[in-house]
Predict the 3D structure of the following.
Amino acid sequence: DTGVSQNPRHKITKRGQNVTFRCDPISEHNRLYWYRQTLGQGPEFLTYFQNEAQLEKSRLLSDRFSAERPKGSFSTLEIQRTEQGDSAMYLCASRQAEGSGNTIYFGEGSWLTVV
Amino acid sequence: TQLLEQSPQFLSIQEGENLTVYCNSSSVFSSLQWYRQEPGEGPVLLVTVVTGGEVKKLKRLTFQFGDARKDSSLHITAAQPGDTGLYLCAGAKQAGTALIFGKGTTLSVSS
């Protein structure tokens, strides 16, 4: 069973360092989403891709954040010059663009702690 | 401004009790979904409701989509400790657009 896979699952980094998270979506899912979630809150939308095209970006995605999906398969989310406020779980999700309504499937998330 | 308002934010009940969680908005959604999330894990889809007035049942869970497609409810009958978790509603304003989540309801069921 190949669900949405994220790594690393946990990352502790010092303030000011750069971090990168990777997401491998369910194969043949051409839409890929990134969300951020803090404790006790619902996920907040960051950005999504259809194939390799980044179609929408939230204003939460500051210029320190960049996401890529170069070949339309896996995606990376990079955070530059991390700040303590970036500490959160970063969730990736994927779905097919057609034929499956709005059912998206989430990975288990990547926890970031900035110290 | 939170597009999807969930209530209550926290709920602590005894095993065997019934409960209802609400998800309200002033906007119309093409569909609403309910997720359950355990600590340290990603959300897991419980149900998707698409048609106004639709009712779906999943064992002891009953989901309803409002007639105007602006609100939804989740009712749990005879709650069990295994129901403990964060319940999230999420909606898409148009088919295929990104899901918007509510802040969630944290449910704790004690035996």
Chain A has no helices and eleven strands. The interface with chain B takes residues 4, 31, 33, 35, 40-45, 48, 56, 91, 93, 97, 101-109, 111 of chain A (CB under 8 Å). The two ends of chain A are 35 Å apart (CA to CA). Residues 24 and 74 of chain A are 5 Å apart (CA to CA).
